[in-house]
């Protein structure tokens, strides 16, 4: 069965950095679209970033230029490097296996069918 296990979260000061990891199993990782999504306290899920099998990437405007998604297909592992962290980045971060793209109101929306248990990122001084 599909399993996604995130790690690497923690408490960091504003301006700091973290690297999240997600180990995947139960599917052909190298051919899968992979995503990071997050959920801030009291809010819904927010898409953060996507990486395609050919390493093409996409980012939400709120994180572009600060976060970097990458993958190591030999290790079945997805990464998210978080730099220049802000308090508004505080959230539980989930990795997810992509299942397609929808266009809602003219906006691209990445869909996913499996996700992990999440890892908490807290940005606070």
Characterization of this structure:
The model has no long low-confidence stretch (mean pLDDT 96). Strands 2, 4, 5, 6, 9, 10 and 11 form a seven-stranded mixed β-sheet that branches. It is globular, with a radius of gyration of 14 Å. The chain is an all-beta fold and 125 residues long. Helices cover 0% and strands 58% of the residues. It starts with a strand and ends with a strand. The chain has strands at residues 3-7, 10-12, 18-25, 34-39, 45-51, 57-59, 67-72, 77-82, 91-104, 107-115, 119-123. It has no helices and eleven strands.
Descriptors:
125 residues; mainly beta; seven-stranded mixed β-sheet; four-stranded antiparallel β-sheet; 58% strand; globular
Would you report the number of β strands? 11
User: What low-confidence regions span 5 or more consecutive residues with pLDDT below 50?
Assistant: none
The outline comes out as globular
Distance between the termini: 40 Å
Radius of gyration: 14 Å
* Tally of separate helices: 0
Strand content: over 45%
Helix content: under 10%
Short characterization:
With 125 residues, the protein is mainly beta. 0% of the residues lie in helices and 58% in strands. The strands form 2 sheets. Strands 2, 4, 5, 6, 9, 10 and 11 form a 7-stranded mixed beta sheet that branches. A 4-stranded antiparallel beta sheet has the order 1-3-8-7, with no helix packed on it.
Topology:
Layout: E1 3-7, E2 10-12, E3 18-25, E4 34-39, E5 45-51, E6 57-59, E7 67-72, E8 77-82, E9 91-104, E10 107-115, E11 119-123
Parallel strand pairs: 2-11
Antiparallel strand pairs: 1-3, 3-8, 4-5, 4-9, 5-6, 7-8, 9-10, 9-11
